[in-house]
Amino acid sequence: MRLAYYPGCVAQESGKELDMATRWVARKLGIELVEFPKFSCCGSGFVDEANMVLNVALNARNLSFAEAAGLDLLTICSTCQGMLTLANRKLEEPAIRTRVDSALGQLGLHYSGTTKVKHLLQVLTESYPPEKLQPLVVRPLRGLKVGAFYGCHLLRPQGELPGEDGEDPHSFEDLLRALGAEPVMYRGRVMCCGFPILFVKEGTANRIAGRQIEDAAAHGAHAMATPCPLCHISLDSFQNHAAREVGHPLDMPIFHLPQLVGLALGATPEELGLARHLVDTEAALRRIGTVATPA
Amino acid sequence: MVESVSVPLSVYRFDPGRDASPRYVDYRLDLPRHTPVLTALLKIRSEIDSSLSLRYSCRSAICGSCAMLINSKSRLACQTQVGPELDLHGRIVIDPMRNQPVLRDLVVDQRPFWQDYERILPHLVTDPRHPMPEGKPNPMTPEQVERFHETPRCIACGACYSACPAKEADPTFPGPMALAKLYRFVVDPRDGATRERLLRIQPGGLWTCLRCHLCTTSCPKDVQPSERIRDLKELAIREQGATEAGSRHAVGFKENLHDRGLLNEMRLVRQTDGVLGMLRQAPQGIRIAAKKPELLHKPRRIEGQEEVRRLYELLEDEEGGA
Predict the structure, then answer these.
(1) Does A98 reach chain B within 8 Å, measured CB to CB?
(2) pTM score of the predicted model
(3) Which of A143, A266, B10, B273 has the highest CB neighbour number within 10 Å of its CB?
(4) CB A36 within 8 A of CB A4
(5) CB neighbourhood size of A32 (10 A)
(6) Which residues does chain A have within 8 Å of residue B312's beta carbon, measured at their own beta carbons?
(7) pLDDT class for A293, splitting at 50, 70, 90?
(8) Closest B-chain CA to A59
């Protein structure tokens, strides 16, 4: 399988471990990641608040490169998935389509609207169903209770993850089960991580993150896992502030989705960049019989 | 005869005057799969327990009375069928709406909801520069009506208000319904109170919205409040400039992308919070950068950056783009 790899900004900077884990898993599964150094940021849901048509055009430019290469596009971030899907949907509105076509035309680019945007979770669900994935599992995540945390823009407003209900999804839990882990069902799994207002109203954002972590913990989760590096910032990098807001310590390891896949398929913690997390993952690793060597 | 299935329901019961704490009471009914949850609850009330309290009226998703939590989702009970819920959860758990105090069982005190609605001045305020023609209608063009999008369809059921995590975390946030209605007045060509309305929704304002889109998935009338809040943010930036942390963040992000094509995380914090804010964040920044040194690296730039800048030139001026 060949896919246009759209890593997004954070996985190329502070969330580098997500990029490392994605590349490891892709190599293991024989997915070829085709890189496009011309890809820009998706706008992250902020640029479209300042100028929606511009944001659609920026993403139409991104999508046009994948279309010209005849490839579906792979995202590893719920927000990238949401914004690129939104661009495809907005381009169905004739008034927006006309303006974007004309602007791209001046750059000598054209986008017909055929690029399929697929998050890694969807690619794994579609192409590696349990019967295909399980034989590859060398280290089942047995005994590890994991709270899946989807990230809003992978689920809503519509169509981001085909076939999934925006408030009642199940593909992430199905994947966790295939890896041998025990998924934990809790309300917070489809809720917001607080990231969109982390730099605007930090206390409120931290409180929202803290509540989701508390909720997962109250339902017995040993760890949480997210398909979104922005959720990871909110839940992992800022977990100390979330704890301050909810008024008691939190100690919840937060994995990126491909890190858990990688662990089950035999990657070492070093290959997955686990030492880069702010919250230590060792307690969770011990449960599945893996211990990280110190970084 | 339609075949019935056995439906387990777990219903929140609480009478603050009598009960020390809320409890769930389990019921089991035989119902056809297409039965609305509201019909199931009324069957419980008429055949099992007449003390069950709930609001309802039209049974046709018009009056907006029967919003409640159905398996944790804010929905109209008259519009939600038991079959699909059983498929997803194997049972049906019913709770009162969130973000409003419980009066009894499934009935909540909606005063906070209506008070937030009043904050936006929910009536036309004529622009003195364009007075209404006396004794004559003041028709709008079809294009002007189009700009309302779906907002006039709102039935004020409160499902979005119940679903909103921003409202849950910050009571000063007006909630999705009030903001969707605010949008409706801002784009009404006959109205002249945009500035006052935007002032009246402070301090929660527009920028506490998390863009989680739970309001949009909860809305029984496809009003898409989260989309209208996004539209409002764009209009507010055009009207007022980047005057709040939220609008500075959006505009700063846009500038970031203009210059490099990618986000530079450190620069964005400075643009949103200012230098003082950055100093306040410094201990946390150092703590994170110790694990993630890329944060301190020289910002990268994409190939073909000039194409991105050209798109800005082409699409920033039209309609006074911010």
Answers:
(1) no
(2) 0.95
(3) B273
(4) yes
(5) 11
(6) 54
(7) low
(8) B308
